[in-house]
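Hallway conversation turned thread

IA: we were arguing at lunch whether anyone had actually written out Membrane protein end to end. Turns out nobody had. So, for the record, here is the sequence (128 residues) and right after it the structure tokens. Reply here if something looks off.
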Amino acid sequence: MLVAGLIAAGLAAAVHVYIFYLEAFAWTRPRTRSTFGTSEQEAVTTRPLAFNQGFYNLFLAIGTVIGIVVIAAASEPVGSGLVLLATGSMLAAAIVLAGSDPTKARAAAVQGAFPLIAVVLLLIHLAG
């Protein structure tokens, strides 16, 4: 379960790095606007907020990767705590997104699927 959980966590981190790129660097591009359902004017107006939000996603990805490295190199309990904190935060953000705007359910599923799998598998591993 540990290896599968860490693979899911790594995929969650990769998704969040991609979201970081979209929010921090490609926010006003037509394809990104289409992905997030924003007009050109909305994208220009919200660019500073999206830039900041992008970094939140990057930091969660970094925390996940650090946790994976710590598990592999030194300490499973410490690394597992880091991975669970980061992926749990990703999952919580997806739940908030889906709950705050049901039209964003697809985006929430993309954002939260790998973190959910990672959290469940890591908790099963730790309980066993």
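OS: looked through it. Residues 2-127 form one domain.
IA: good, adding that to the notes. The chain has one domain: 2-127.
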